[in-house]
Amino acid sequence: MAVRKIAIVGAGPIGLEAALLARRDGFEVRVFETGRIAEHFARYGPVRLFTPFRMNSTELGRERLRSTGVKLPGDEEILTAAELRARYLLPLSRLPEMSGVIREGTRVGAIAREGLAKGRFEARGSRPFLLRIEDPNGEPLGLERADVVIDASGVYAGKRILLVGDGRSAANVIADLDELVRAGGESARTRIEWVHRDRGENSFAPVPAAELTELPVLRELNERASRIALGSAWIRHHAGATVVAYRPLPSGTIEVALVDSRAVEERIEVDRVLALVGYRPDLSLFRELQIHICYASEGPMALAAAVLAAQSKDPEAAQGCLGQVSHGPETLKNPEPDFYILGAKSYGRNPNFLLTLGHQQIEDVMGLIAASQRPVSPASR
What pTM does this model have? Predict the structure, then answer.
């Protein structure tokens, strides 16, 4: 039986771990990454993670790196995004079995079934996927075929900053900026215009008690950021306000139009905007495939339904990241055979995703792929 080809979109933590496991199991693998390896972690370099290293890595990855002499962080060590990238994710990408697997600077522009339109249902699983490969600017580089596709594509001194959002990313920013202001000099002139929901004295989104108990770093951040937010003169609150427009000014600054809860408009001028309001998945990648998407979360329907069902049965247990559990391989299937959405993208707009969930998803999907081993169409070779 011919070796099946697996195409993975995204060289982040889930894409890399999926590629490593697929290579161990003998599959031919290609990983396509528009930017650099673990690009998101590079961009959010100084942001401290809430979870310990053991929750952000897999047993397979740790074993393989130790066997090559890489010194890994301690299991309970808390890393920044940049440290996790440098000390674990980049070494993963350099393992011998990953040689030639990852193509940086290559973007998957679209995915379809070769010879089949989206509206045709007959024998879709017998046709290979066709991936349009582009450079980061969208210039075509060619076409690639694959039997299976895994979509794993899925943060200022002396400035006036507009901060939008009230989650943990916003708490991290406020804690970091407090250190900047305390450093004195030009940094002491930093000012924040903060747009967030009106929660009374608590400016941040509530965190489940279980997470505050089990994740000391998160508890410390929550307490510290709350103190800073309430007692700092360099933060001006716009509780319950809405950003309705941005306008660049000739000076290089940005004029921001806000409307408060009484429909009163205010215009402020800032140097930078940090919009930390969560993410939404890019659904254009699989526009030509038969994917059932949840109308609320924009995640794949089977998984979204399972998450919602668990929350309705036990709202307290299912609230937050630590309350999430794997819902099994069947929830990762799509109407499109052999196409899987993993990682944060699988949760769509739902923010309650942890890397440990993604690691379990990889195991589940590789089990599905192994169980569906069948003769491969000659056209995919």
Answer: 0.80
